[in-house]
Design a protein that fits this description.
The chain folds into two domains: 156 residues, Quinone Oxidoreductase, Chain A, domain 1 (Alpha-Beta Complex), CATH 3.90.180.10; 125 residues, Rossmann fold. The chain contains ten helices and 15 strands. 33% of the residues lie in helices and 27% in strands. The strands form three sheets. Strands 3, 4, 5, 6, 7, 14 and 15 form a seven-stranded mixed β-sheet that branches. It has a six-stranded parallel β-sheet with strand order 10-9-8-11-12-13, with helices on both faces. It starts with a strand and ends in a 5-residue tail after the last strand. The longest helix has 21 residues. The protein is globular, with a radius of gyration of 20 Å. It is α/β, with parallel strands linked by helices.
C-alpha cells in the first residue's frame, strides 16, 4: 500500500496541535485529479481555523492549507480539463498541508511551467483578494487615491504592487521596520505606532480619498470612513473568525449609515463558494503579470510541507513580512 503524509489539525489550540500523519494514497475518483504538492501557503485563516473560529472549516480533525500549487499525478474517469504532468493551482480553503491532495478537476487553474512555485502560490489567495478588491469591488482608475491598513502583510503587499500597476496614489499603514515594503512601490508609509492615519491623510489629502482598503477591523473601519471623500468607498477584508466578521459587517453598515459613503466587506471564500468564475478568470491574469516580471511577491519565510507547525508559530509571532510558504523538500 502506497502512503503519503499530511499535517492534521488534531484539536483546537497552539501550533503544536498540528501533527504529521500517514494516509493511504488512493486512486482519484471520477472527476477528480490527484496532485503532488509543490507549495502551499500559511496565513491568518489557518490560525483562525486552528483556534476554532472559522465558519467554513470542516469538523476537526482535518488538514489545513488554503491554497496549493502542484503537479497532476493521476486523474479519475471523465477528467478532460487537466492531464498527468500538468502544473496546476487551486483555492482549497483546507487540505494543503500535505504531500498529495485530491481536487475536482473543474477547480484547477493551469500554472505556467516557468513560474517559481513559492511565488506562484502567493497569488492564489493574497493577490486574487487584492486584485478583486481593486478591480471588481472598487473598480479603481489611474490617479485614484487610496489607503491600505496593514500594508506590509500578505494582502497589503499585493495591494501595493497591483495599485502601482494601476497608477494609484497610495498610503499604507505599517510599522517603522517594514516601511521599506511600502516605499518600494512609491506609496507613502504611515507608522501606526507613532502616527494617526486619520491625521496624516487629512493633512495630505484634505479633499479625502477615493478608497480605503481596511484589513484591521474594529474601530479602524469607522476611522477609515472618516478619510473618504464624498462618494468614496471603504472595502473591509481580512477577519475570518465568525464573531469578528459579524463585528466588522456591523461596523461597515454603521459607517455607511453615519457617513453616507459606500462600503462593503470582502470575503474571498464566500465569493468563491457562490461563483468560482471570477477566481478562475483572475488567477491566470496574475500568473501572466508574474511571468512578465510585473509582480514580485514578498516571501517572508520558506519551510518544508510538513513543517506547518513551525510556520504557524512564526506567523503568530508577528516577525514575518509578506507570505509564509511550505514547499516540497526538493524545492526548498
Amino acid at each position: 500500500m502506497k502512503t503519503y503524509r499530511s499535517v492534521v489539525l488534531t484539536r483546537q489550540g497552539p501550533p503544536e496541535v498540528l501533527q504529521v500523519v500517514e494516509n493511504e494514497l488512493r486512486d482519484p475518483a471520477a472527476g477528480e485529479a490527484r496532485i503532488k504538492l509543490q507549495a502551499t501557503g500559511v496565513g491568518r485563516t489557518d490560525v483562525v481555523m486552528r483556534r476554532g473560529y472559522y465558519i467554513y472549516a470542516p469538523k476537526i480533525p482535518f488538514v489545513p492549507g488554503y491554497e496549493i500549487v502542484g503537479v497532476v499525478d493521476a486523474v479519475g474517469a471523465g477528467v478532460s480539463q487537466v492531464a498527468v504532468g500538468d502544473r496546476v493551482a487551486a483555492l482549497t480553503v483546507y487540505g494543503g498541508y500535505a504531500e498529495y491532495i485530491y481536487r475536482s478537476a473543474d477547480e484547477l487553474v493551469h500554472v505556467p511551467a516557468a513560474l517559481n512555485a513559492a511565488e506562484a502560490v502567493t497569488l492564489i489567495l493574497n493577490y486574487v483578494t487584492a486584485y478583486q478588491m481593486l478591480h471588481r469591488s472598487a473598480k479603481v482608475q489611474a490617479g485614484h487615491k487610496i489607503l491600505m491598513t496593514g500594508a506590509s502583510g500578505g494582502v497589503g503587499t499585493a495591494l501595493l504592487q497591483l495599485g502601482k500597476l494601476a497608477g494609484l496614489k497610495m498610503y499604507g499603514t505599517t510599522s517603522q521596520g517594514k516601511q521599506h515594503l511600502v516605499q518600494e512601490t512609491g506609496a507613502t508609509p504611515i507608522d501606526y505606532r507613532t502616527q494617526d492615519f486619520v491625521d496624516v491623510i487629512r493633512q495630505a489629502e484634505p479633499g479625502g480619498l477615493d478608497f480605503v482598503f481596511e484589513g484591521l477591523g474594529g474601530s479602524a473601519i469607522r476611522r477609515g470612513y472618516s478619510v473618504l471623500r464624498r462618494g468614496g468607498k471603504l472595502v473591509a477584508y481580512g477577519n475570518s473568525g465568525f464573531m469578528a466578521v459579524l463585528r466588522d459587517l456591523a461596523q461597515v453598515q454603521l459607517g455607511r449609515l453615519l457617513s453616507g459613503k459606500s462600503g462593503e466587506f470582502y470575503g474571498i471564500t464566500a465569493i468563491y463558494r457562490k461563483d468560482k468564475t471570477p477566481f478562475l478568470e483572475d488567477l491566470p491574469v496574475l500568473f501572466k503579470l508574474l511571468a512578465e516580471g510585473k509582480l514580485k511577491p514578498v516571501i517572508g519565510q520558506r519551510f518544508t510541507l510538513l513543517e506547518a507547525a513551525q510556520a504557524n508559530a512564526l506567523l503568530e509571532s508577528g516577525q514575518a513580512s509578506g507570505k509564509i510558504v511550505l514547499l516540497a523538500p526538493e524545492l526548498l
